[in-house]
Specification:
208 residues; mainly alpha; 10 helices; 63% helix
């Protein structure tokens, strides 16, 4: 009963309905297309990811973002618990700053992108460094296009990790489910999130 009530409450707090999520994705259609072309990543992969994340964002996510913003501004890193958070999943791709930093480093190492092309300092970034974390989290939170691009790079990194290759033109349905699952977490099995994102991927792929 408790989980049903919690789910109902969170649904009441949602910031994006399915229709508003679609409007957001449509509004950034040209930027998504540019990012997709830049990284040879079908736009349907990105749109499905964004839709899956957007319809999950609620007021509790905004509260977590507020706590992180205050802690990063104050340079707070000590302690534990919600009020001491210095990173949170944020923006349309709901990506953590430390995850985005790892994705940026991956892209630079594989020569998919340079730090300069991403508007970042031209050096390897450190996900444990408070200044790097502050810089990247703030941009993820305030710049939707930057957020979408780093989310796309994290999707590519996840694909390489779980399949051993980067080749979005020939992934199997199971591999795609595993890629989305890895974007969302580190469990070894395909999750309901991975299944849901895959269904949205099929829906967007059909409209191409």
């Amino acid at each position: 009963m408790k989980s049903i009530v919690e789910k109902a409450v969170r649904n009441m707090l949602k910031l994006y309905s399915p229709k508003s999520a679609e409007r957001f994705i449509s509004g950034y259609g040209s930027q998504i297309a540019e990012i997709a072309e830049r990284y040879a990543l079908p736009g349907s992969f990105i749109r499905a990811l964004l839709y899956t994340e957007l319809i999950r964002i609620d007021l509790l996510d905004l509260f977590a973002d507020l706590v992180v913003r205050l802690n990063l501004l104050r340079g707070t890193s000590a302690g534990s618990g919600l009020l001491h958070k210095r990173d949170s999943s944020t923006g349309p791709g709901q990506i953590f700053a430390h995850v985005a930093i790892n994705a940026a480093n991956f892209a630079a190492e594989r020569r998919l992108a340079s730090y300069a092309s991403l508007g970042l300092p031209e050096r390897r970034l450190d996900p444990d460094d408070l200044q790097d974390l502050r810089l990247v989290w703030t941009r993820l939170n305030r710049d939707p296009v930057f957020n979408i691009e780093l989310s796309a790079l994290n999707l590519i990194s996840a694909a390489d990790e779980v399949t051993g290759r980067i080749g979005f033109a020939d992934y199997s349905p199971e591999e795609i489910r595993r890629i989305y699952t890895r974007y969302n977490g580190t469990v070894p099995h395909i999750t309901p999130y991975g299944e849901e994102a895959y269904r949205h991927y099929l829906r967007y792929a059909e409209t191409v």
